[in-house]
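Hi Y.,

Following your request, here is the sequence exactly as I used it, all 199 residues.
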Amino acid sequence: MPSELVRRAETKGYSAIALTDHVDSSNIDFVLPRIVKVCNVLNRHWKIRAIPGVEITHAPIQEIKSLVRFAKKRGAKIVIVHGETVSEPVIPGTNRAAIEAGCDILAHPGLITRKDMELAKLKGVCLELTTRKNHSSTNKRLFKMARSVGAKLVLNNDTHDGDDLVSLGQARRILKGIGASPAEIKAILSNSVELGTKK
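Below is the corresponding structure, written out as tokens. Let me know if you'd prefer a different format.
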């Protein structure tokens, strides 16, 4: 439940968390208004900030742009597109379609091409380093390429339940483990905060 997840994040020391359930054209019009509603309720009563959003997942690439546009018009403050992770059969071309659509975060982009990463930098799309085990195998490659291109990275839990939430200390250790310097760790974590506080 969203309320439980937000409460668990608050007890772990989070000041904000985005609720971005998986959507496609079959359910975005149902899921998003409920996420917006629960975020509004929780933000009235709790100190932690709940940020409404969606993760467009396994959608036909021809639909991604209209889904991103729909989400932004209907109250999503963060729009994520599920990228071409190596652990799932995501449609080739999803990374490029998501970046061109102007999503906020391209989640677990797998073996993203340098050309797509350069486009992400140009369009201001953040690329996700994930703490989730089944998607994190390409984190080191993604980090090294982003470092050379200058693309913006965020660290995301990709939380499916409360046990997936990592502490700030764990986040720093994960980033250090892929070769990030203290300054780079600070920048990646700052990008995550900045994205969560945008209006």
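The first helix runs from residue 2 to 11.

Thanks again,
Q.
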